[in-house]
Amino acid sequence: MLNKLICCGLFAFTTSVASSPNQSQSPEEAAISFYHDYLTSSQLNVTESLKQSDIAIAKYTTRHLQKEINMDNSGSDYFTHAQEFCPEWATNIAVSNTKTKSDTSHIILTLGFEKSFSSYDVGLIKEQRIWKLNSVKFISRRSGYCN
After folding, report:
1. Is the pTM of this model over 0.70?
2. pLDDT tens per residue across span 8-22
3. Contact 105, 96 (CB under 8 A)
């Protein structure tokens, strides 16, 4: 019986640790983790996709950004500025030009390659020692592919 309680306790602990953002993640790692989780959620069935994308948004974005997203009526996805995702975006995520000052950071994030290449200015802030996305500004896209 004691072994079962210990196993259940370990499972609950590892599950809660795995579901929270890593406090040691850099701004770059936080942005890449978010975009990976968010974009791969679109490959699931509709119900599971919505659930997983909501989890990624809750986990990796600030409340300020969540409110901004709820007020966005643009018709395109806030994080990609596109109506459809390119399948290769989830596996081709890169960051560059990081500028970090204390608890704020800006990075240039790129998705895809060649025809599907798209770039964004991602602003992050540190909340309770965890880097979270606070803004996403579209920079450019090489073509109309996946938009």
Report:
1. yes
2. 343 333 333 344 566
3. no
| DSSP labels, 19-64 | HS--TT--HHHHHHHHHHHHHHHTTS-HHHHHHHHHHHHHHHB-HH
Contacts (Cβ under 8 Å, ≥6 apart) of 68: 78, 135
Do 95 and 106 contact (CB within 8 A), yes or no? no
CB 34, CB 60: distance < 8 Å: yes
Nearest to 60 by CA among 100, 21, 29, 89: 21
Instruction: Give the architecture-level CATH label for domain 27-141.
Output: Roll (3.10)
- The phi and psi torsions of 94 (rounded to 5 degrees) equal -135, 155
Alpha-carbon distance 27 to 33, whole Å? 10
Q: pLDDT tens, 19-74?
A: 456 678 999 999 999 999 999 988 777 778 789 999 999 999 999 999 999 998 88
Contacts (Cβ under 8 Å, ≥6 apart) of 25: 33, 130, 131
